[in-house]
Specification:
Blueprint: H1 30-65, H2 76-80, H3 95-110, H4 115-127, H5 131-144, H6 149-161, H7 165-178
Helix pairs in contact: 3-4, 4-5, 5-6, 6-7
């Protein structure tokens, strides 16, 4: 005969009908003891799950953080001059990123007509949240290639972050006129 056994008393007394008086599996713990063991197991599994989740989240964060754009302090001078929050700054810079920015700045200074280099410099400033630098580079790029909807859109975002909402809206509208699906 399988399954649960009939409720039988743990002691020599007659069962009162409450779960604490029944020993359903014959181990002497009764139903209440089984419940305590199940609750203890649930707590242990929940704690183990949380631990695994926190460890997994930590490694995921580290993996993603390595691939995020580097934040530059290139806008620190602008912030000191009273520029709005977000004009530049962020997390401490990393050397390869700063080297690339410095290299592009020198190249653009020597080759101001190279629209692709100017755009790349603007994109680096944008990724670094150096909104003043990005806006200036995008404006320079647009003087060389006025019909670039992507740069118009990025220029609009830079202007918006600098608190110049009306100018930003004009850039967004221009970008949409050039490319309706943009």
């Amino acid at each position: 005969m399988g399954g649960l056994r009939a409720c039988r008393p743990r002691t020599g007394k007659r069962p009162s009908g409450g779960p604490q008086d029944c020993d359903l599996d014959g181990d002497g713990r009764g139903v209440a003891g089984v419940r305590r063991a199940v609750n203890r197991d649930h707590v242990l599994f929940a704690m183990a799950g949380l631990l695994v989740g926190f460890i997994g989240a930590y490694f995921l964060f580290e993996f993603v953080a390595e691939r995020q754009p580097q934040r530059l302090l290139l806008g620190a001078a602008a912030a000191a001059a009273g520029a709005p929050a977000g004009a530049g700054g962020g997390a401490p810079p990393r050397a390869p990123f700063l080297e690339r920015v410095a290299e592009l700045e020198r190249f653009v200074e020597a080759n101001p007509q190279d629209a692709d280099a100017v755009r790349e410099l603007g994109n680096l400033y944008f990724d670094a949240e150096n909104w003043n630098g990005a806006a200036a580079a995008y404006q320079h790029h647009l003087s060389l290639r006025p019909g670039d909807a992507d740069v118009l859109s990025d220029y609009g975002v830079s202007l918006q972050r600098l608190g110049r909402a009306e100018e930003a809206l004009a850039m967004f509208q221009r970008a949409q006129q050039l490319n309706p699906v943009h």
